[in-house]
Write the structure tokens for this entry.
Amino acid sequence: MKKIWNKFYDKLNTTFGFFVLVLVLFWIKTFIAYHTDFTLGADTSIQHFILALNPLPTALLLFGIALYFRGKVAYWLMMIVDFLQSTWLFANILYYREFSDFLSFSIVKGSGSVDNNLSKSIMGIMHPSDVLLVYLDIIILIILLITKLIKIDQRPLKKRFALTITGLSLALMMTDYGLSVHDRSGLLTRTFDNNYIVKYLGLNEYAAFSAYQTYHQDTARKRANKQDLNEVLQYLKENPAGDNVQYFGKEKGKNVFIFHLESFQQFLIDYKYKGREVTPNINAFYHDKNTLSFDNFFHQVAQGKTSDAEMMLENSLYGLPTGSAMINYGTQNTFQAAPAILDQHGYTTAAMHGDVPSFWNRNNTYKSWGYENFFSKSFFPDSNNPNYNVGYGLKDKIFLRDAAEYIQQLPQPFYCKLITVTNHYPYLLGKEDASFPETNTGDNTVDGYVVTAHYLDQAFGEFINYLKKTGLYNNSMIVVYGDHYGISNNHRPAIAKLLHKKSVNNYDLAMFQKVPFMIHAPGLKGGIDHTYGGEIDVLPTLMDLLGIKTQGKYMMLGQDLLSKQRNQIVPFRNGDFVTPQYTKFGNDIYDTKTGRKLSLNDSQKKQVDKIQDHVNKVLNLSDKIMTGDLLRFYHPKGFKKVKKSDYDYSVKDTKKRLRKENEKNHTSLEDKNHGHSTLNDYVTDAVELKHH
Ligand code: GP9
Ligand code: MN
């Protein structure tokens, strides 16, 4: 025994032995923090493997720097590197506890300014055990070195040896990256969620990624100046689309619901399978005489998917050609978004979603947009039950029922966005929740689509019934939209089968990008409107109905769908487009009316080129606004700049705030109901809630 110990002790007293010790200790504590302080959501064995592996490569790389030196210098370098990495870990543990997200460099940068109450909130949530977990090994190692219980080895290591370690670390990094991208494609381009980057690549790689992102954004931002605005102003002046006097201000002061139908395409409207309507409730809503429905309305998202849709809907600005604008610019940029505008018109604003708040960087972006409240996963105790969740979050029926708990507490009028999620690729739903047959295209990822869409429709129906029972239906404008396609273009044969066609061409695929857009309000002149438009046009439309002037005031790139002077050009993010005459998809131009492929004559070519110029221009302007953060130079008259530090989305603070507001102005639904909950009016057939 003694012999083994002596041998071990001898090894410890070599530079390499000490290196291994430092490395292993750091690896272990990161692993513990991964499992106790963060919710990284590793669920498959490959994800667990990646998670266990991922602290190693950069630890090897960074501690390995010390191996190029000898004696004291090498040892202290290791300790300094250890301290820096551990401090990054420590800061993230604290930040995560409060925000369920990782620190980004744009947040660190902003934390010095008054616009952020970061340090205050972080000091309050520190536990002594955090310090122990993160720094204990360093303290012990330093004591061992000072007391000479571990002796410093003066011999230099061979350069070749140090190089091998560096090489090994890089090889491991590549391996980790390869495995990760294989498991989650688009990891670094689309990003999704900081949790994903840490889960797959590790905390240090995340730091590097975030630093790169911030650097990249800062350079574009610095280059931009006030004059860049002129081009946008010029464009807006040349492309006016007035309001519609018939509709302007018709819904002024009403509550507004934005009901987000996840992955919901227009073709589902009135679609039947085996003689049954897939979405009877949404169909009825679509045909209601007080619903304005648009049947030539297209989603315009790119890689940012839901986040692109949200960006367009609430800002009338496009997403980015690659990646997500909410992730890249949501934290730092200045916005003049729907929630802020409505807040300043006396509205209570709230977004609700049954997923973690960090997804698509909502937790930060919503503050920049001026959302007063953001109810995410932790607000819904039901989400603790794994059976109540599927895919990205709480099942729609349960989510909407639980959302009502908070809706009834919102002072009226309110602007409330509800983001559903069950109808999401890969369209999985357990038997207990599924009450519609799968289609039989033979394409596994497609055939469940109608099943989850049907489930979403039932959830929608239950929610609408609740609004009717409680009276909210009569004093609200209800906006319902599909965010983007659910079936991607990679599934041509299956799409053809669903559409009862032999095959689909590019024209069919372009038309397949239609999503529902509907506005309902009591007394509203409804009907089916055939104007061509898309998500970029939503905000000016809603503002028109609410009687809020946008033209000549806000930098919104869309046009009011109700206006008579619309240009009806629908740009897609890749530069393709649809107009009432022409549909461009890839290299093909089609006649939009007939779907016939066109070989253009000279005058047609001129027209198409002109449309193309317009499309390129508007996309380019949008990118300039976003990457140059141009709205920071723009001050719409009467609009108060959003201050992010005004917002706190913690459960505690939110509940307190709502209580306070309701004590002041008794306008919430619950208050109107003499302080009684209206949840009895919420009827759901969700099997999970049956036993209640
Ligand atoms: C996750 C959800 C999904 O919170 O909104 O986003 P998507 O994958 O559709 O972009
Ligand atoms: Mn989506």
Q: What stands out?
A: The mean pLDDT is 95. The chain is about 45% helix and 10% strand.
